[in-house]
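Recall that a protein's primary structure is simply its ordered list of amino acids. Everything else, from secondary elements to tertiary packing, is in principle encoded there. The following example makes that idea concrete.
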Amino acid sequence: MKSWDISGKDSNWEVLSETTRSKGAIMCILGGGSEGGPDNSHADSDQWLYVISGSGQAIVDGNAVPLRMGNLVLIEAGEAHEVKADEGTVLRTVNFYGSNIELT
């Protein structure tokens, strides 16, 4: 088992840990900033994005989804995406990536 206290993390992007099947990371985007873009996708892995604080939007395959504290977004493998922070806020998210995981 592994465990992290992410309450004080303010890294732009930091992988916390990974295995051959999954990865966990934290992302902080300053107000008005963004990560990703229309050509950004993960061909073989889904991305779960959970908003810890701040606000913004996720643009997934051209569709904008508002992001607020407590929102959980699934970006499926192959979907192009960009995550933007609203002006005047810091958007903090925890991101989990999984691929080829079969649940039994």
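The two ends are 20 Å apart (CA to CA). The mean pLDDT is 89.
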